[in-house]
Hints:
The protein has about 240 residues and is α+β, with helices and mostly antiparallel strands. It is about 25% helix and about 25% strand.
Amino acid sequence: xxxxQAYRVSLHSILDSIELRQNDKxxxxxSPNSKIEEISVVYFxxxxxxxxxxxxxxxxxxxxxxxxxxIKCPTVITQLAGCKKVQQVLCENNxxxxxxxxxxxxxxxxxxxxxxxxxxxxxxxxxxxxxxNNPQNYVLKPQREGxxxxxxxxxxxxxxxxxxxxQREQYILMEMIHPFLQTNTIVQNNELYHTxxxxxxxxxxxxxxxxxDKDKNEGGVMIGCSSxxxxxxxx
Length: 235
């Protein structure tokens, strides 16, 4: 109704339809009726999992799109910033000081839980020792989003036996967060549920608040483990 044309194209096939105009980095698309149009916004519905890049074709398509002046949602920089490995590195001594004044970074780090690599570094060896002594206090996370990928507590020990030492480096070990619990009412499948749960607040210019039951480990909304909530500000 607004006269804005949208196309849905796979990463595998999009290289057959797009090209980059070198003088101004415009992303040009050959539509099904053979009309050449500039694409202003690329919204990714794929590209979030390693399995979404099975060949060099998908990588080449992503690179070409990133090099264009089209608005990307998300950009590769934004996507990488949300990776668990980046979160782990920011927890290392003096790293966050590179981006924030010391007084602010000190206050911010007081809100962090401990996050470790699982490699052969001293920090990685410390993480492995802590895990062996108290596995129930940790969660193992891969470089994935969307829920359903994390491994918790005692299950971490049995999982590590199934992968090699080099494969462990794909994961980070995070101290379990124990949030304040509160009673809440959740609407799910048109039914009301009373629960005792915790909240997770994300701020991205606006905000997103998720609430999940205390007995659930995962917190993904799309996989049915949590629900969208709203804030009540108390002076």
